[in-house]
Structures are given as structure tokens and as C-alpha cells.
From TrEMBL:
<feature type="binding site">
    <location>
        <position position="71"/>
    </location>
    <ligand>
        <name>Zn(2+) 2</name>
    </ligand>
</feature>
<feature type="binding site">
    <location>
        <position position="271"/>
    </location>
    <ligand>
        <name>Zn(2+) 2</name>
    </ligand>
</feature>
<feature type="binding site">
    <location>
        <position position="66"/>
    </location>
    <ligand>
        <name>Zn(2+) 1</name>
    </ligand>
</feature>
<dbReference type="Pfam" id="PF00753">
    <property type="entry name" value="Lactamase_B"/>
</dbReference>
<feature type="binding site">
    <location>
        <position position="213"/>
    </location>
    <ligand>
        <name>Zn(2+) 2</name>
    </ligand>
</feature>
<dbReference type="InterPro" id="IPR013471">
    <property type="entry name" value="RNase_Z/BN"/>
</dbReference>
<keyword id="KW-0255">Endonuclease</keyword>
<feature type="domain" description="Metallo-beta-lactamase">
    <location>
        <begin position="203"/>
        <end position="272"/>
    </location>
</feature>
<feature type="binding site">
    <location>
        <position position="70"/>
    </location>
    <ligand>
        <name>Zn(2+) 2</name>
    </ligand>
</feature>
<feature type="active site" description="Proton acceptor">
    <location>
        <position position="70"/>
    </location>
</feature>
<dbReference type="GO" id="GO:0008270">
    <property type="term" value="F:zinc ion binding"/>
</dbReference>
<keyword id="KW-0862">Zinc</keyword>
<feature type="binding site">
    <location>
        <position position="213"/>
    </location>
    <ligand>
        <name>Zn(2+) 1</name>
    </ligand>
</feature>
<dbReference type="InterPro" id="IPR036866">
    <property type="entry name" value="RibonucZ/Hydroxyglut_hydro"/>
</dbReference>
<feature type="binding site">
    <location>
        <position position="145"/>
    </location>
    <ligand>
        <name>Zn(2+) 1</name>
    </ligand>
</feature>
<feature type="binding site">
    <location>
        <position position="68"/>
    </location>
    <ligand>
        <name>Zn(2+) 1</name>
    </ligand>
</feature>
<dbReference type="InterPro" id="IPR001279">
    <property type="entry name" value="Metallo-B-lactamas"/>
</dbReference>
Length: 312
């Protein structure tokens, strides 16, 4: 498992429907402390994970946005690798319930010695779908695409930032600090009751959102609301906006507009059409930046993109 406190996105693949010489099919791995969330494993995901120094044991959850091949054809190999490597922990797998038949086909695509650690967790409906973790709030919302497609929001619960000067003023030291943080109230050495709000400030939890194939829609903005890191498809440039509209995709500019409306901190563009080459890369970030004044990153295969530090 990855070391505690590491929070980063590993871009395993950044192409769209067709892989290219420099962009593999989709695949995104989010390290989050002791969680390892694999999104949309397309073809070649096993190899890309190996190149990135990741193993099947690092995966604690899989999230599939939809069952188009570039987002899911790497699933059989990934699941078989989980079985082959005898991963000991439960691996929950979220996917659109409307694609249950595709899940079944991919889950049992070929003959292999199976494992019982993979736990299906289909998502569905028009509203939020919460996927439980003890220390994370994972939300799925439907997007606007040609087949059922869900985006995901990974949110850390809000917490508190302890203030040393206020702790000292109230005589709170040593184990009392931990108790105050955990219990919300303690008795100080002088006998007074001290509340957490007297010695700490609210600290918003970190948020990562992943929005794949979609036309512009309110749900994309809601998933990205206040996100520290938004990973979003930007399949086309402005001159091909008509194709984005026809196929239920976004341009880089539209991705920037969503990020701006949602108040995102760092925008990561991905899912790039095979029609573009390296000479077009700067145009993606430039067009997104015309709509969004935060940090814009055009993901490349095997990039490691840190989740920004918590807001203060």
C-alpha cells in the first residue's frame, strides 16, 4: 500500500477513443493516504501501472464512469491481476447499474482462478449516490453522455486546524490536545471547560472530482464544486465544438467554464482526441485558461499530479 499522507493523481492513460503513440487509453489512479482508487481502466492499464510503479495490491477501489471500451476494456485484466496476486483486502467496484450486463461480461471475460475480494457496488438514479468509506465521502452523479455515465467526487470530511497560541493560552498541552481534537471539549488544568472552537479553526477537507465523458451539465459543476483537483475530459478544441456537441463531450474551453463555475483550484485536462498531436498541447491549456483563471494542467501519460494543499 502507498505510504500514509500521499495524495496524488497518477495519469495512467490520457487519450480518448483511440490510443496514440504517446497517449494510452484512459486510466487514473488516485493515491489517497491508504486508499488507492483506480478510475476507468482502459486497455493497457496493467502495463501503465507497472511503468508507474503501482501493483494490484495498491488498488482498494475501482470506479467505472461508463462502459465505453476506452474506459473499461482494461477491467478484465485488472481484476484477473487482483486474483492472481492474491490481493487480501476487499476491492469495491462502482459502475453504472444500467451497464450491469457489461460488468458481468468484463468480470468474467476469460478463464482464470477467481477471487472473492471484488465487491460490486453499482450506482444508479438521478441524484447523489453515496459510496461508503470510513474516512471519505464518495459521491456519484449522472452526467450527459450517449450511454449512462457517472462522475465521482472524493471528499474528505471537514476538520479542524489547531492553534498553538490559543492552546497555550488555555493551558492545553500534551495528551489534552488529542482529547480536545477527538472529543470536542476538555477540562483545562485550571478546571475550566475548553471547547474545540476556542483553540482551533475549521479546516475544509480536500476534494477531488473526476468528470469523464459528458456534455456540459449542472451535475458536472456540482461534482466539481470547491474541488482542490478536477480531472475532466477535454476531448476537443474550439474548432471541433460541433463534434463535442454531437457526441456528448467537452471542449477544453467548456472544461474551463465548468471549473470556473465550480470554484476549482487545479484543473486537469485529459481524454484528448487522437486527431491532435503534441503541437496542439498548448492550445488545450490556453483555451481552458481563457475561461478559468486557476492552475491548468494538461495531463500526459504517467504524470504524477499532487492534490493541492488544504485550504486555510
Amino acid at each position: 500500500m502507498p505510504p500514509m499522507s500521499v495524495r496524488e493523481l497518477v495519469a495512467l492513460g490520457t487519450s480518448s477513443a483511440v490510443p496514440t503513440a504517446r497517449r494510452n487509453h484512459n486510466g487514473y489512479f488516485l493515491r489517497w493516504d491508504d486508499h488507492g482508487i483506480l478510475f476507468d481502466p482502459g486497455e493497457g492499464t496493467q502495463r501503465q501501472m507497472r511503468l508507474a510503479g503501482l501493483s494490484a495490491t495498491d488498488i482498494t477501489r475501482i470506479c467505472i464512469t461508463h462502459f465505453h471500451g476506452d474506459h473499461s476494456l482494461g477491467l478484465p485484466g485488472t481484476l484477473q491481476r487482483i486474483a492472481r496476486d492474491k490481493v487480501p483486502h476487499t476491492v469495491r467496484a462502482a459502475y453504472p447499474v444500467q451497464g450491469q450486463k457489461y460488468w458481468q461480461r468484463l468480470r468474467h471475460a476469460t478463464s482464470f482462478v477467481d477471487t472473492d475480494v471484488v465487491a460490486p457496488q453499482p450506482v444508479g438514479g438521478l441524484g447523489s449516490c453515496l459510496l461508503g468509506e470510513a474516512d471519505l465521502r464518495i459521491t456519484a452523479l449522472p452526467l450527459r453522455h450517449s450511454i449512462p455515465c457517472y462522475g465521482y467526487r472524493i471528499a474528505e470530511p471537514d476538520g479542524w486546524r489547531m492553534l498553538p497560541d490559543r492552546l497555550a493560552a488555555h493551558g492545553i498541552t500534551g495528551p489534552l490536545v488529542g482529547r480536545l481534537h477527538k472529543e470536542g471539549e476538555v477540562t483545562a488544568p485550571d478546571g475550566t471547560r475548553v471547547h474545540l472552537s476556542q483553540c482551533a479553526l475549521p479546516r475544509p477537507g480536500q476534494v477531488v472530482a473526476l468528470v469523464m465523458d459528458t456534455a456540459p451539465c449542472p451535475e458536472a459543476v456540482e461534482l466539481a464544486r470547491g474541488a482542490d483537483l478536477l480531472v475532466i475530459e477535454s476531448t476537443y478544441l474550439d474548432e471541433h465544438a460541433h463534434l463535442a456537441d454531437a457526441y456528448g463531450h467537452l471542449t477544453a474551453r467548456q472544461a474551463g467554464q465548468i471549473a470556473a463555475r465550480a470554484g476549482v483550484r487545479t484543473l486537469v485536462l485529459t481524454h484528448i482526441s487522437e486527431r491532435y498531436d503534441a503541437a496542439d498541447d498548448a492550445r488545450f491549456t490556453a483555451q481552458a485558461a481563457q475561461a478559468f483563471d486557476g492552475t491548468v494542467v494538461l495531463a500526459q501519460d504517467l504524470d504524477r499530479i499532487p492534490v493541492p494543499r488544504r485550504r486555510r
